[in-house]
């Protein structure tokens, strides 16, 4: 059952963000960050972490724990499991410490800074994990190519996210595409573990 958690986390994320967005009048999934659903003073400040960050953190944590307990797995796979656990912890921290109401504030609060650092940890953990998976023969060549594609997509949309943020256009869309590529990789990892 635990091998399915990578896939379940993708579905949970889509449903959770959609539900929270529906409770936030005027919320734009293309112009606003996911974190704005739980930002200080938002209509969904309390709801969003309860249905998104906290359960997702548990899913990531358990999925990573499952991976590190696979018998006779290479050390690199164990490291990937640890990175997914780190991603789960970052998800909890980002939920507990909300971002400021204005994502463009010049003087972010301490809570917002912690939120941002947790977000950076989340991003890096699921960039390094697919990168590592491209180098181990434990995985098929097809999955390694799939991992490369997801990694490149996530990096590309992270770069376009930075530009969209600076231009104040549609950073929410680029954030979802970047993170979506990472969660699609987790889904692929789930199915790879189920079928191997």
Short structural summary:
The protein contains six helices and no strands. By secondary structure, the chain is mostly helical.
Describe this structure in words.
The chain has 196 residues and is mainly α. It contains 6 helices and no strands. Helix 4 packs antiparallel against helix 5. The chain is globular and about 50 Å long. The two termini are 14 Å apart.
* Helical content class: over 70%
In terms of per-residue confidence, which ranges show pLDDT below 50 for 5 or more consecutive residues? none
Radius of gyration: 17 Å
Structure summary, number of beta strands = 0
The rough form would be described as: globular
Elements, N to C (H/E): HHHHHH
C-alpha termini separation? 14 Å
Question: What is the number of helical segments per DSSP (H or I, 4+ residues)?
Answer: 6
Helix and strand arrangement:
Blueprint: H1 5-22, H2 47-68, H3 75-96, H4 110-133, H5 141-167, H6 171-195
Helix pairs in contact: 1-2, 1-6, 2-3, 3-4, 4-5, 5-6
Descriptive tags:
196 residues; mainly alpha; 70% helix; 0% strand; globular
């Amino acid at each position: 059952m635990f091998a399915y958690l990578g896939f379940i986390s993708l579905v949970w994320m889509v449903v959770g963000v959609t539900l929270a967005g529906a409770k936030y009048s005027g919320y734009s999934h293309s112009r606003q960050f996911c974190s704005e659903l739980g930002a200080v003073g938002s209509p969904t400040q309390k709801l969003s972490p309860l249905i998104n960050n906290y359960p997702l953190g548990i899913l990531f944590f358990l999925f990573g724990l499952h991976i590190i307990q696979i018998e006779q797995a290479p050390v690199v796979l164990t490291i990937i499991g640890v990175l997914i656990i780190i991603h789960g912890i970052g998800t909890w921290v980002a939920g507990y410490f909300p971002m400021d109401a204005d994502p463009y504030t010049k003087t972010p609060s301490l809570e917002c800074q912690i939120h941002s650092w947790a977000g950076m940890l989340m991003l890096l953990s699921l960039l390094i994990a697919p990168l590592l998976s491209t180098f181990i023969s434990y995985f098929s060549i097809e999955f390694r190519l799939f991992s490369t594609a997801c990694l490149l997509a996530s990096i590309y949309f992270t770069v376009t996210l930075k530009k969209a943020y600076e231009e104040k256009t549609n950073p929410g869309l680029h954030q979802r595409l970047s993170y979506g590529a990472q969660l699609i990789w987790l889904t692929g990892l789930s199915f790879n573990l189920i079928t191997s």
